[in-house]
Amino acid sequence: MKTLIIYATKYGSTKTCAEKIREKLNTDTVIVNLKNNKKPNVAEYDTVIIGGSIHAGRIQGQIKRFCSTQEKTLLGKKIGLFICCMYEGEQAQKQFEEAFPERLREHAAARGILGGILDFDKMNFVERTVVKKVAGVEKSQFKLSEEKIDAFVRELQK
What we know:
Number of helices: 6
Shape: globular
Mean pLDDT: 90
Strand content: 15-25%
Low-confidence stretches: none
CATH topology: Rossmann fold
Number of strands: 8
CATH superfamily: Flavodoxin domain
CATH architecture: 3-Layer(aba) Sandwich
CATH class: Alpha Beta
Order of helices and strands: EHEEEHEHHEEHEH
Largest sheet: 6 strands, mixed
């Protein structure tokens, strides 16, 4: 069984999650950053995992476009969908629902809200200022959840 993990990231949290997921899967797994490969060939994979991070309440446009253009093909595959975000509960669920088309969410074998990272060292001055003002966060935070990543992989492997 061949698995493709497709992601987009701004500061690296989604890449970290994609790598952790790959480590935990017992399959031949390839990771593709949509920034470097805008049209990966999903046809040659049995399972496709798609992930992105939430910034200003939205997932990357690359993920939206990929899901839109590949929806028909993806509906014929086993898929997993995940986001990296700093929120939990209802607000995180709302961000997940807005990130992916309804048909893909309903079809997905696994869905995950895996936590996030706010790394002030990777942000410029304006980004840090906005995060401090909007989120009320004064320093870097690491909230990726190994437990949620493990649960996502278990759900996908059922």
